[in-house]
Amino acid sequence: MWQLHIKINNISCITKCAHLNPAVTLGLLSLRKMEVVQSLFYIVGQIMGAFLASAVVFIVYYSQINIYDGGIRQIEGPNATVDIFYTVPAPGIPNWNCLVDAMVGTTLLLIFIMAVGNDYNNLISNAAKPFSFALLVTALGLAMSFNCGNPINPARDFGPRLFTACVYGGHVFRVNNYYFWTAIVGPIIGAITGVWIYEGYLILMKRYANLSGIIHIDAVEQLDQRENEKSYQIDKQVSSESS
To answer: Which residues cross the membrane (predicted)?
Structure first.
């Protein structure tokens, strides 16, 4: 259902790209493709959306949750119901392994997003891009959920955890040896890594492959500017010495 939600929301990318993931937002911010204030508003909105969605789920399934846990909100144990709202590590999986899992999954996600979202990529139409994103999230979910539920979106974990803290208590942040931070830090590191792997690839292609039609990113333009300034200083120095 989460993948279907991603597909439906990303249909808005046909006209204007939707931001549903703070890790994606911060990755683009690291490339200066977004403003800081704009990014903060996006992230707050993403977390609030996940918080409110958790409240809706809790209300809709309130009776079923009561039947399962007997009206006693449990975070751990055989009748625990809190883990339906956020990701949790599988038994025996340490936090460092979950951190690596989140980093790898989000790195792959961002490389794909950058490639598909490249304006010079004519291999896929704008109408098909939202569906390709949904298929990718589905594939990542199927391939990488075994360790800790595929935490590639900090809002999808932190927003519901904030809501459950109001209902189940603050222990939701301490459970599983303070696992919650891995579902926040891991995706952010992975997202920044992913966007710069892709942008680094573009820089290499522009520099050494002599391929036309590759987008000129800010990093390349800044590098060109520094090289031009350096050449100007050298020419100026040579001219002054010759005179």
So the answer is: 40-62, 102-121, 133-152, 178-198
